[in-house]
Design a protein that fits this description.
Elements: E1 2-4, H1 10-21, E2 27-29, H2 41-46, E3 54-57, E4 60-63, H3 65-75, H4 85-113, H5 124-130, H6 143-151
Parallel strand pairs: 1-2
Antiparallel strand pairs: 1-3, 3-4
Helix pairs in contact: 1-3
Length: about 160
């Protein structure tokens, strides 16, 4: 298996973490905007979104990090992604939650943290000090609180092992 993507990408990192956890052999190739290689005809043929990661496993080419995770875990017959459809929903809902509720606010904070302090928004320090990401309306629990509350019940968010 070959992972195409920069090692500093969170979506690439989660793929690498799973490969390491499952002790799967793989190679990683530097691909990303900073390498000027996501817009090449060759890469666009593999991933029309021109983003990372992309997984190449022989003739199989997969893009979108959560789809890659599902593929790797299924191929490895890992109990991290159960064969039982009902049990599998416990994993899938947290994967979908991460993309729908956590990813965009996290990326916004990450991008702003890389800016020089003078270029950051006026409330950046307060947001960072709060050490959580508020998602949705103020009546909803912050994403971090929901995540921590769930993790108190199981060592894994999906709780399927």
């Amino acid at each position: 298996m070959k992972v195409l993507g920069r090692k500093t990408s969170g979506n690439v990192q989660k793929v690498l973490f799973l490969l390491e956890e499952l002790k799967q052999p793989y190679e990683r190739e530097d691909v990303g905007r900073q390498f000027n290689n996501t817009q090449t005809p060759d890469y666009l043929a593999k991933n029309p979104n021109a983003k990372v990661p992309t997984l190449v496993d022989g003739e199989v080419i997969i893009w979108e990090s959560n789809t890659i995770l599902r593929y790797i875990a299924t191929k490895a017959k890992s109990n991290l992604y159960p064969a039982d459809a009902a049990k599998r929903t416990h994993v899938e809902r947290w994967m979908d939650w991460q993309l729908a509720s956590l990813n965009n606010p996290y990326l916004a904070m990450f991008r702003e943290a890389k800016l020089e302090p003078a270029k950051r928004s006026a409330d950046f320090a307060a947001q960072a000090a709060a050490s959580h990401i508020q998602v949705g309306s103020s009546r909803r629990k912050p994403a971090r609180v929901r995540l921590l509350a769930r993790s108190a019940h199981s060592t894994l968010l999906g709780g399927v092992l």
